[in-house]
Amino acid sequence: MKTIEDLKRLRDKVQAQTNLRHSSGTQVIVGMGTCGIAAGAREVMSALLDEIAKRKIQNVIVRQTGCIGICSKEVLVDVVRPGEPRITYGNVTKSDIPRIVTEHIVNGCIVNDLVIGKITE
C-alpha cells in the first residue's frame, strides 16, 4: 500500500465483506472447524466473500460454524434461501464457489453433483 487511494480501496473492500455478514435474506454457512480449515475452508470463505462482493449481490448473510461431524466431506457449505430447504454442499473447493453462487444463490437452482444433504422443515 503506497497511497491514500490504496488505503481507501482496502477500506471499501473490507466494509463490503463485513456487510455480507450482517444483511438479511439468503444465508450461506461455511464449516470452519479445525477439520474444515485443514480441508481449505479459509480459502473457500475468502472465495465466497469475493464472489458475492464482485457480483454486488445483496441480501446474503455469510456465516461460519464449527465442526458438525462430517469431517470426511469438508469443506461444507450450506445455502439457505428463504422459504426453501437447507442444502449442504460437501467437498467444496474455491473453484466450486462461482458455480454455487451463480446457480444456487442467484438463480435458485441446486448444484446437485455437490449436494450431500437437504434439510426440510
Task: Characterise this structure.
The chain is an alpha+beta fold and 121 residues long. It is built from four helices and five strands. A five-stranded mixed sheet has the order 2-1-3-4-5, with helices on one face. Strand 3 (77-80) and strand 4 (86-89) form a beta hairpin. The radius of gyration is 15 Å and the shape is globular. The N and C termini lie far apart (49 Å).
Which ranges are low-confidence, i.e. pLDDT below 50, for 5 or more consecutive residues? none
How large, in whole angstroms, is the Cα Rg?
Answer: 15 Å
Q: Counting H and I runs of at least 4 residues, what is the number of helices? A: 4
Q: Round the mean pLDDT to the nearest integer and report it.
A: 90
Helix content: 25-40%
Shape summary: globular
Strand content: 15-25%
Biggest β-sheet: strands ordered side by side in the sheet: 2-1-3-4-5
By helix and strand content, what is the structural category?
alpha+beta
Please outline the major beta sheet: 5 strands, mixed
Distance between the termini: 49 Å
Order of helices and strands: HEHHEEEHE
SS elements, strand count = 5
